[in-house]
């Protein structure tokens, strides 16, 4: 599936059951755009059981564990920070519990010339930092 917003390739993945409560909507799968980092519903058949998010950016942790997918979902929801603040906070907590520094990931994403995020990652990072304190 290509991104409905910018037309770039996406990476489709399954949302682990324990994360679904922290994600809006009922879909068990989602797709992250490799260019604009938008999150989109995707047909279940396209989802990879072992997605490699480092093809999107080296900023993402390697592997497909719960922490990595929580980080990907949080980034995808940052576009609607005010609306999904509770979900984003819950996801970010999971990222931290998995041993990844979510703010560092956002810094590295913002510095990655291979992506063109539609959201202002540095601004969102500041918001996030305030909510984590
Ligand atoms: Zn896109």
Quick structural gist:
The protein is an alpha+beta fold. It contains 5 helices and 3 strands; from the N terminus they run βαββαααα.
Core attributes:
globular, binds zinc ion, 133 residues, three-stranded antiparallel sheet, 10% strand, alpha+beta
Write up this protein.
This protein has 5 helices and 3 strands. It is an alpha+beta fold. The chain has one domain (10-132). It has a 3-stranded antiparallel sheet. Strand 2 (29-33) and strand 3 (39-41) form a beta hairpin. Helix 2 (66-77) packs antiparallel against helix 3 (85-97) and helix 4 runs antiparallel to helix 5 (121-132). The longest helix is centred in the C-terminal third of the chain and has 13 residues, at 85-97. The N and C termini lie far apart (38 Å). The model has no long low-confidence stretch (mean pLDDT 91). The structure holds zinc ion (ZN). Zinc ion (ZN) binds at residues 3, 5-6, 8, 33, 35-36, 38.
Give a quick account of the main beta sheet: strands, pairing sense, barrel closure. Answer: 3 strands, antiparallel
Question: Taking strands numbered 1, 2, ... along the chain, how are they ordered across the largest sheet?
Answer: 1-2-3
Q: How much strand content do the residues show?
A: 5-15%
Class by SSE composition:
alpha+beta
Indicate the multimeric state. single chain
Low-confidence stretches: none
Number of domains: 1
Mean pLDDT, as a whole number?
91
CA-based shape:
globular
Ends distance: 38 Å
Q: Provide the helix percentage.
A: 25-40%
Q: Count all strands and give the number.
A: 3
| Small-molecule binders | zinc ion
Taking all Cα atoms into account, the compactness measure Rg is 13 Å
Give the number of helices. Answer: 5
- The secondary-structure element order is EHEEHHHH
């Amino acid at each position: 599936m290509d991104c409905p917003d910018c037309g770039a390739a996406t990476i489709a993945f399954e949302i682990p059951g324990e994360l679904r409560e922290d994600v809006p909507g009922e879909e068990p799968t989602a797709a992250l755009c490799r260019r604009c980092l938008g999150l989109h519903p995707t047909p279940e058949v396209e989802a990879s059981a072992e997605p490699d998010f480092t093809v999107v950016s080296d900023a993402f942790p390697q592997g497909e564990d719960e922490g990595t997918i929580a980080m990907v979902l949080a980034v995808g929801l940052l576009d609607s920070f005010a609306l999904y603040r509770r979900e984003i906070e819950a996801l970010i907590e999971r990222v931290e519990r998995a041993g990844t520094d979510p703010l560092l990931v956002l810094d590295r994403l913002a510095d990655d010339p291979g992506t063109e995020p539609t959201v202002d990652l540095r601004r969102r990072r500041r918001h996030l930092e305030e909510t984590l304190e």
